[in-house]
Specification:
Two copies of one chain form a homodimer. The first copy, chain A, has helices spanning about 30-40, 45-50, 60-70, 75-85, 105-120, 135-145, 160-170, 195-205, 220-235, 255-265, 280-290, 325-340; strands at about 90-95, 125-130, 150-155, 175, 190, 210-215, 245-250, 275, 300-305, 320, 350, 355. The first copy, chain A, is α/β, with parallel strands linked by helices and about 375 residues long. The first copy, chain A, has a six-stranded parallel beta sheet, sandwiched between helices. In chain A, strands 7-6-8-9 form a four-stranded parallel beta sheet, sandwiched between helices. In chain A, α1 (about 30-40) packs across α2 (about 45-50), α5 crosses α12 (about 325-340) and α10 packs across α11 (about 280-290). Chain A starts with about 30 loop residues before the first helix and ends in a 15-residue tail after the last strand. β2 (about 125-130) of chain A pairs antiparallel with β2 of chain B. The structure holds a DNA duplex (30 and 30 nucleotides).
Chain lengths: ~375, ~375
DNA sequence: CTTGACACCCAAAACGTTTTGGATTATGCT
DNA sequence: AGCATAATCCAAAACGTTTTGGGTGTCAAG
């Protein structure tokens, strides 16, 4: 016999290859039609009644509501979305460097975005994809064209970020945490990383340091770029020499910070201070320093970036640059909702001034002994 | 004039009150119909062609694919979902105690779930809601009935968890991280918390401790309950006296651990060891201990729970009970997908045996001097 | 020259909602 | 009575996809 309606080959779309769902009979949700049939009125009236249109008599409204409650009616979101052509959902594609990541950055950002979204009646669709992967590209593609979400958050912007150019081209609503190098104009919130590095270097110089190393974030990330740039500028502004060996690119993890610190301390000419591109690396770095028998905050000054909630709890507590990720998430969320609803943004480009948080890891004033 | 079709009153459903979307004309996505019209064939054939049915001539398939690519076709997921009656989306309602949370637990769990989901072609819908709030209830209601998601993760199970009873009643696919006290049967993964506490207490007893305090997780959380219970049992097993004053309920945050530690050390009869209900509290607690001039790991032994990635980076490094949250997330995700697709689970109830990770915070063997 | 088998295609229905464009009846006003 | 107005209600279309239940033409075997 000739078999039809059976999927033999691969899939064309983005669907998934699971066996067709056997009828889950126990879960027959009640629909508008059920209510309508029950009351002997039309589906239209039920729909409009529930939606509160003045079109429907108060008395009818009440009866509709009553049977809706009795039958345990919940609107089918998918159908609603199809008709309204909006999903009331915001998308967020997590760029995880390592599959097994655990970056407080994300949970804090998610908290800010999530709380704000929830209070505005939006849901959050999260997808985890390796940055630059084809899967990531596919996810953005799907987002931009498939009615997957109403708008997107782009985080950890990259230098020449193809995600952004793609979304700009497609004219898809999105907001970014961070800037990028491209011609297109888009709403973003960013922290002035260069200014942050400047502050921390000034702080270290004030403490008497001049041999300052930098464990940089990956340079393909825009904020990495800015921080590195800021590092050079600030060093120049203080007339300090920059040694190329004292600049190492880290991978944003504790382990990365640890190994970076150790390789810096293995140099014949050691720095007296190390700035890390984020707190996670700084915390790992301090461990690396301890492992070589030195004390961070005493023998080596350490500075971080982000002020994650744990940085005040490590020992020594971490001198760092505050980055209010939660607030940024919240703010970006309201911005995105405004963009989606085509409201004018009061500010399309927000550049936050960082604040230095001095704790113990930068240590006390040192003798000018190590000056060169 | 009488105005119609304008929403004067509130909404009936779960919709949101934004102005009706002004036609975003620039974003007219191409549909199957566009492709069909272009090729002069039917929508059916286009759909089946893209889906790879043998129903369609190879040549036609190729032409369909070509124009689909040319027109930049992406299937409308909402329409697909409505028709297929499945969303290929898994739901996750984050119970955040404080609005401004930042718990590595969630980011790690999200990573595990998210990676697994992505590789299986599922998306993740995340909502942030305060535990026990009406909004949380509404979110679960919507999930269970509205075709919002295909299945749910329930985390941080509570004693007598109404979320679980509700989902069981509704026969909705879900899996839980943790058990609960109710009659219903459901798939879960949990760690044997009681056994974990047992291990850590045995470790402390081996080191010579007998005056052991416990900063417990909230007792309305099921794992809190188990850990408290385990504490009593283990103490009894070692013939150690439990002082009620040495048991404090914490709020799972660093700050909570800090204040708990300080109030324990303010007692006239001090414990020599403190076990914290999670690593976050333990890290905060160690700071509290330092603040009173004592050294954790030297004057006071400290144990945690979870083994978050930072616990090996604090000073002293934290002795704790490993809880492989990432793996649990991954495992729960495959379980949930199996449940959704009505496959038999190989294991419906997984109870993981914890492993003790000894680091510096539990300190060396002490004199039996403080024995009573 | 039938008769199947086969390869390819399609119209219509369905999913559950909202919107459109009236229809129907009652009410008040000249 | 005649006419506008108000108060309710509703059938049908639409959203974009997949599934159902066929149809049509070709070719080889009888």
């Amino acid at each position: 016999m000739y078999i039809r309606n059976v999927l033999e080959t691969g899939f064309g779309g983005t669907g998934v290859g699971f066996p067709t769902n056997i009828n889950r009979e126990s879960r027959m949700a009640t629909t508008l039609r059920d209510i309508a049939r029950e009351l002997g009125i039309s589906v239209t009236t039920v729909s409009r009644g529930l939606a509160g249109y003045s079109d429907v008599a108060e008395d009818t409204k009440a009866r509709i509501q009553a049977t809706a409650d009795r039958l345990g009616y919940t609107p089918n979101l998918t159908a609603r979305r199809l008709q309204k052509r909006r999903t009331d959902t915001l998308g967020f594609i997590l760029p995880t460097l390592t599959p097994r990541f655990s970056d407080p950055f994300f949970s804090e950002f998610l908290a800010g975005v999530g709380n704000e979204a929830a209070s505005r009646g939006y849901d959050l669709l999260v997808s985890v994809q390796a940055p630059g992967s084809t899967e990531e590209r596919a996810a953005y593609e799907r987002a931009a064209a498939g009615g997957w979400v109403d708008g997107l958050f782009v985080v950890r912007t990259r230098v020449n970020d193809e995600r952004i150019t793609r979304l700009c081209d497609g004219n898809f609503p999105f907001v970014a945490f961070g800037r990028t190098e491209c011609d297109c104009e888009f709403p973003y919130v960013d922290e002035d990383s260069a200014a942050g590095v400047h502050q921390i270097i000034t702080h270290l110089v004030d403490l008497g340091h001049s041999a300052i190393a930098f464990v940089a974030p990956p340079s393909y990330l825009m904020f990495g770029r800015y921080r590195i740039q800021g590092f050079y500028e600030a060093m120049a502004a203080h007339n300090l020499e920059v040694r190329e060996k004292w600049i190492i690119e880290g991978d944003m993890t504790q382990r990365g910070g640890e190994t970076a610190a150790q390789s810096l301390l293995a140099l014949t000419e050691r720095p007296t201070a190390i700035i890390f591109g984020n707190d996670l690396m700084a915390i790992g770095g301090m461990n690396g320093i301890k492992a070589t028998g030195l004390q961070p905050g005493v023998d080596i000054a350490v500075g971080g970036f982000d002020n994650i909630s744990l940085s005040s709890y490590v020992t020594p507590s971490l001198t760092t640059i505050e980055q209010p990720i939660y607030d940024i998430g919240q703010r970006l969320c309201t911005m995105l909702i405004d963009v989606i609803n085509e409201r004018e943004l009061t500010e399309r480009h927000v550049l936050l001034s960082p604040t230095l948080i001095v704790r113990d890891s930068s240590g006390p004033r040192i003798q000018a002994g190590s000056r060169r």
